[in-house]
Amino acid sequence: MLTLHAALSLALDPAAPDVVAVVGGGGKSNAVFRLAKDAYAATGRRAIITHTARIAAFQYTWAPAMVEAASHTALPWDALAAALDAHGCILLTGPIVGDRRQGLAPEQVDELARRAPAFGIGLITVEADGSKMRPVKAPDSHEPVVADSTTHLLPTLGLDAIGALIDGRGVHRPELVRAVLGLDPAAAVRLTPAHAAQLLAANAGGGKARPAAAALIPLLNKADTPLRLIYGRLTAHRLARAGYPALVAALLNEGPPVLERWGPVATVVLAAGGSTRLGRPKQVEPVRGA
Questions:
Q1: Rounded CA gap, 155 and 171, in Å?
Q2: How far are the Cα atoms of 153, 207, 246 from residue 211, in angstroms, in the given order?
C-alpha cells in the first residue's frame, strides 16, 4: 500500500511545485485534503489545499489552518506566509456564500504556483469541480476549472457506482455521462468497469480541460470491499491497456490509502548476436502481429 503522494511519484520540489487538480466524484475533497496533509507530514514540504469550485463551508475544519482570499484579487501573501510558518499545510479558500465557500480563480492558482518557491511550497492540491456527493459524473460546459499550472489531473470515481443504473440517483448529470459513453439516452444501463474506464479517460469526461503537459492519472476510490476491489482492478486494467496509470484506493483507510497502482508495462528485448540458434534475425521478429 502507498500514500497518495508516493503513488503519484510527486517531486514536492518548491522550485517546481506539483499542482494536482482533482475532478469527478466519489472522494475529491478527501483526496485534496489527504494528499496535502500526508505529503507534509511525511516529507515536511509545505502544502496548500485550495479549490476552484465551491466547497462546503464546514470543510475548513479538515485543515490545520485556513486563510481566506477574495476571488479575482491579489492573494493575502502576508497571511499565507504566517500560516505556513505556523502550520506547514493550510487551506486557502474563498469567502462564504450561503453554506458554501467560493473557489479561487484559476489565475490565482497559477500565481500561487509561480510564487511557490518564495514560500517553500512543494505541493498545491485543487478541487476543480463538484458532483453533489455522487460517486460519478461528467462535466458540464462550465467545468472543470483547471489552472494552466496543473501538473497532474486526477479524475476520480467511486467504485460504489459500478453495477448501478446510470440515473440521477447515483450519477451527477447522467445524461452527460450517457452522451460521453455513446449510450441510448432512454435505455436502462448499468455502469460497468469498461464504462468507467472510458469515462475517466475521455476528453469530454475525466480528461476535459487537461493542460497539455499534465499527467492524467485516474483515481478509483472506495475499494473497501472485495467486490469493489475487483471492480477497481477491472477498470484499472482497461485504463492501463489504454496507456493511463490508475490508482485503486480506499481514501478513508487509516493507513496508506492506495491499495494498488496500475500502469502500462513496456518490454525490452535484448536481441544482439547472430541469431544462430533462432535461425532468423531476432530484431525483426513480429510482436502481436506487427
A1: 15
A2: 9, 9, 18
- pLDDT range class, residue 277, cuts 50, 70, 90: confident
- Write down the H helix ranges in the chain: 4-7, 28-43, 77-87, 106-119, 174-181, 193-201, 226-241
Asked if 128 and 22 count as a contact pair (C-beta separation under 8 A), the reply is yes
DSSP state of 160: G
Q: Is the dihedral of CA 67, 102, 46, 119 positive or negative?
A: negative
Report the predicted TM-score, pTM, of the whole model to 2 decimal places: 0.90
Sign of the dihedral defined by the CA atoms of residues 209, 19, 131, 56, in that order:
negative
CA distance 108 to 89: 18
Confidence of residue 279 (pLDDT cuts 50, 70, 90): confident
Residue 65 phi/psi, 5° resolution? -160, 165
Q: Which residues pair with 282 in a beta bridge?
A: none
As a whole number of angstroms, the distance between CA 113 and CA 94 comes to 17
Question: Look-up: residue for cell 504556483?
Answer: 113
Query: Got the DSSP string for 93-142?
Result: E--EETTEEPPPPHHHHHHHHHHHHHHTEEEEEEE----TT-SEE---TT
Report the amino acid identity of residue 70: A
Element (H, E) at 22: strand 18-24
Phi-psi region of 27 (alpha: psi -120 to 50; beta: other; left: phi over 0): left
How large is the average pLDDT for residues 105-120? 96
On whether the CB atoms of residues 222 and 259 are closer than 8 A, the answer is: no
What is the mean predicted confidence (pLDDT) over 78-97?
Answer: 97
